[in-house]
Amino acid sequence: MTFAHPTYLWGLFSLLLPIIIHFLNQGDVKTVKVGSVKYLSEHATKQSRKIRINEILLLALRLLLFALLVLTMAGPKWKMPSENTPITYLIEPSLLQNAQIKSLLDSLPSSHVKLLANGFPDIYDYEGGNEESNYWKLAQEMPVLGSDSIVVFSKGLIKGVKGKRPTVSEHINWMVLNDGQAIEEYVGAWVGSDSVELLKVNSDHRLMDIRKQEISKSDEEIKRLDSDSLFFSSKKGSINVPVWKKDTIKVGIFFDADYEREKHFMEAAFKAVGTYGGHPVKIVSFRKGESADVLDSKMDLSVWLGVDPYLQTSTTILFRPDSLASKLIVPAERNNSYSLTQRLNIESAIDRGLVKDLARILLKNDSIQNLVDSYDIRVLAEEEIAPVFNNLKKSSVRVGTMDVSPWLWLFMALLLLSERILSKIKKQ
Q: Which of 173, 169, 153, 150 has its CA nearest to residue 85?
């Protein structure tokens, strides 16, 4: 027997309260002196014994009713062996309107089809939207399906692969369906003194490209320019895009002499982030021993390379080597604090995505970054998504659970009916 909400079981201790009250009331007896006890028996009468038995019986029934109520609220589940399902099909929610998937659903038994989403809901019971799927996280949770073989149909988006590739013992066949979707759209603009810079996103299953197009404020294409929106005409018709502000990002790099190479890589990466995000980046570097009190906490981000931090800034990056880290820059325990997990060189800065990691930190609340993430529809190959298979021998029988709450509710109803009848007959 297992419980979905075991904390409710603490309520069973409240059963002691009526028992204590019952025994305390047994001693609450007054002695009455009478003139003669000639016709009174010294022993309890038969009628008084019946009354005590009825009281105890009713007390036991009421305690049992309350105990069953507590157990039912705790969500009892009975463990029982069950055979594995031979095959299970998982479908990413965003593919439900795909023509291939629709024809596939007509030929498969509904009991073998579930959605590739948290909890793996049945396809006809799903009420959620098209939220992003974390493929590798879901792959680690697939053992709960109890299936000998799993076939996954997904879009295979790059942004759906997060963390470290998992190792699983289930046979997972990953199928990537490319619907041929392509995006070519203007998503925002920056306004300069005499020109407007438009940002255009081009994305398909192979690439994600961001282009900037500069036009004059006096250009006839511009129909209306406000402080927060731009209305202009293009080959595809009239377009309205938001206007973004170019706030200056202040960065301080504090370094030991042995980390001067890392300092140069960081400076180059921050400049690339500024160009990509459309924000001017002001970088100030301090060698160990130089005073930086003039900046204090006005910096948006500080980087500490071989130097212990001595200033409080809104965001901090510390050099903390970690050979097991899956990324170059990872979140630390403290909020808005990150760790640089290895020393920098050309290979690590390019292959492990230094600029990309810094952009996610500096531009995490930026409209451009958020829009770019939503437009990224690049696709990975099936072999790049599939988790590592560990060929461990597994039993074809698994332990399942059965919800026994309905039976407890029925038993409680019968007990309540019995208690009411008995209390009415005995008038107690």
A: 150
Q: Residue 119: its pLDDT value, please?
A: 85
CB 60 within 8 A of CB 84: no
For 250-294, the three-class secondary structure string (H helix, E strand, C coil) is EEEEEECHHHHHHHHHHHHHHHHHHHHHCCCEEEEEEECCCCCCC
Q: Give the number of other CB atoms < 10 A from CB of residue 184.
A: 13
Q: Which residues pair with 400 in a beta bridge?
A: 80
Express each pLDDT in 65-124 by its tens digit. 888 888 888 888 777 666 677 889 999 988 888 888 888 888 888 778 999 988 888 887
Helix (H) / strand (E) element for 407: namely helix 405-426
- Judged on CB neighbours under 10 Å (0-12, 13-18, 19+), 249 is buried
Q: Cα 351–356–360 angle (5° rounding)?
A: 150
Tell me the one-letter amino acid at 378: R
Closest Cα to residue 277, out of 148, 363, 175, 391? Answer: 363
Of all helices (H) and strands (E), which one includes residue 108?
none
Give the strand pairing for 237-244 and 183-191.
parallel
Distance, CA of 43 to CA of 137 (rounded, Å): 74
pTM to 2 decimal places: 0.55
b/e map of 302-323 (b: 16 or more CB within 10 Å)?
A: bbbbbbeeebebebbbbbeeee
- Which residue ranges form the domains of the chain, and what is each CATH number? 2-24+45-79+402-426 (no CATH), 85-178+379-395 (no CATH), 183-244 (no CATH), 249-367 (3.40.50)
| Both structure tokens of 365 | 């609340």
Q: Is the pLDDT of residue 255 over 90?
A: yes
Residue pair 239/186 in contact by the 8 Å Cβ criterion: yes
- Is there a contact between 330 and 323 (Cβ–Cβ < 8 Å)? no
Per-residue tokens: 117: 């989403």
